[in-house]
Design brief:
The chain has 14 helices and 25 strands. It is α+β, with helices and mostly antiparallel strands.
Length: 471
């Protein structure tokens, strides 16, 4: 059984090892791209299933747009082009011939979406327009890491058009709240949420809001974003509608998305030196049953016993490991590596006592549980694990936020360890760039307004923002 590099020794190595040893993903032969294996893709399917419910509940319909985007579309929005230019992959030849116009391989879908919306929207009756797309994205990353930053990745992107700026702002907040609740309730990760700095916003947006989680190495991970696009995208693509008075108006668009980066967040927010620790609501397998026997007679009795137990698992995702080639101890380690929330051990003594042994993946605690109301006990245990992971994530974040007013002290401390710093900031790009240069930390999201002096230049300001090193 392979052992992981301890988190405390090298968190990056631990992460790379755990992704592959737990059978989530591996690198492909194309540099920077990943192969998501069945166990890893099952996590994405669970995310997709739950997110789909929540997205449709706010009146958003799924669509699909082409992977290829004409260069002429892509060049219409100057700030957008400038922001994505280094990452865009281009198709120049097809069918053995050079194309008359290059095609961008989708780095994001705003341009092709709004070109299409111009054909769909004519009247105020066509608004609000709310669509969502599940798709693959290509951004030519120089430094890649499985799930966190890859050349090709999977995501969800919502796009909406509204008659007023106020309605668009409300949509931005609604999408962000959807993400925050999903990550809290389903992934067990506590997050900060708020607006990004102008330097950190989405290219072409008026403003960007985000949710930021803290990983176990105390670095930040941006887990979802929601953008107000102002009216510029709509104007450059000629989207207009007639209002109730018959006057031409320009709609107000938004876009918002999350990606397979969420899986990286699950790994780094909950995993330990034994492997993954999966929240029950996201886990492909919630309970792994390990039969323990020494001979065929014991095996037969345990098979009959487990068969009788299975009626307790109607609403629980479970698997029985009947593999004869490995010992129970090897199986324990393997399923701990894969992060299954609950392990159920069933041996000859358990059959005699009419019980099972349940082991929690999050705490390692073992419980002897009688068969009376076994299903209820397991469901309660799964709920408790889910709640405990969120509580631990919240404690990790809140206990590692530090207030700073002295820039020299901050620079000294951030070199020793990772944490979130809450500071006053004058909002100048010069000070923001200085922080990044001196510490490798970046602005994450704004906090509540509070008067003070900018941590860098000492200018009076009422703006506070979180700083952290990030993925």
């Amino acid at each position: 059984m392979n052992k992981l590099t301890p988190q405390s020794k090298n968190f990056a190595d631990w992460y790379n090892e755990i992704v592959q040893l737990s059978d989530l993903a591996e690198y492909s032969d194309v540099k920077g791209c990943m192969i998501i294996k069945p166990y890893g893709y099952a996590l994405w399917e669970n995310i997709q299933e739950e997110m789909n419910k929540r997205i449709k509940a706010i009146g958003v319909d799924n669509v699909y747009m082409p992977l290829f985007i004409p260069e002429s579309y892509f060049k219409k929005e100057a700030e957008h082009v400038k922001g994505f230019a280094p990452e865009v992959a281009w198709v120049t030849h097809a069918g053995g011939k050079k194309l008359e116009e290059r095609l961008a391989i989708r780095p994001t879908s705003e341009t092709i979406m709004y070109r299409t919306f111009a054909k769909w929207v004519h009247s105020y009756r066509d608004l609000p327009l709310k669509v969502n797309q599940w798709a693959n994205i290509v951004r030519w990353e120089m430094r890649t890491r499985l799930f966190l930053r890859t050349t090709e990745f999977l995501w969800q992107e919502g796009h909406t058009l509204h008659t007023t700026e106020k309605q668009a702002d409300e949509m931005v907040d609604q999408a962000l709240e959807l993400y925050k609740n999903f990550v809290n309730e389903f992934l067990g990760i506590y997050v900060l949420n708020g607006i990004k700095s102008q330097a950190e916003k989405f290219a072409g947006a008026e403003y960007t809001k985000a949710i930021e989680g803290m990983m176990k190495d105390k670095k930040a991970l941006q887990m979802g974003t929601s953008h107000s696009l102002g009216q510029n995208f709509a104007k450059v693509f000629g989207i207009e509608f007639l209002d109730q008075e018959g006057k031409k108006q320009t709609p107000w668009p938004t876009s918002w998305g999350v990606s397979t980066r969420m899986i990286g967040g699950i790994i780094m927010a909950h995993g330990d030196d034994k492997g993954l620790v999966l929240p029950p609501k996201i886990a492909p397998i919630q309970v792994i049953i390990i039969p323990i026997y020494k001979n065929s007679d014991e095996e037969k009795k345990i098979k009959n016993y487990i068969k009788n137990l299975e009626k307790n698992f109607k609403n629980i995702k479970y698997k029985i490991d009947w593999d004869h080639t490995n010992t129970p101890g090897w199986k324990f380690n393997q399923w701990e590596m894969k992060g299954v929330p609950v392990r159920m051990e069933v041996g000859p003594k358990d059959v005699q006592k009419n019980q099972v042994i349940l082991a929690r993946r999050d705490t390692g605690e073992k419980l002897q549980v009688k068969l009376v109301n076994l299903a209820g006990n397991i469901n309660n245990l799964l709920n408790n694990i889910q709640d405990n992971l969120l509580k631990n994530s919240e404690n990790n974040l809140k206990s590692n936020i530090k207030n700073y007013t002295d820039y020299n002290k901050y620079k000294k401390d951030i070199k020793k360890e990772n944490f979130f710093a809450l500071v006053n900031w004058c909002e100048s790009k010069k000070c923001e760039d200085q922080i990044k240069y001196d510490t490798k930390a970046t602005t994450r999201v704004y906090a509540e307004n509070k008067s003070g002096k900018c941590i860098v230049c000492a200018k009076e300001t009422n703006k506070q923002i979180y700083l952290a090193k990030a993925y």
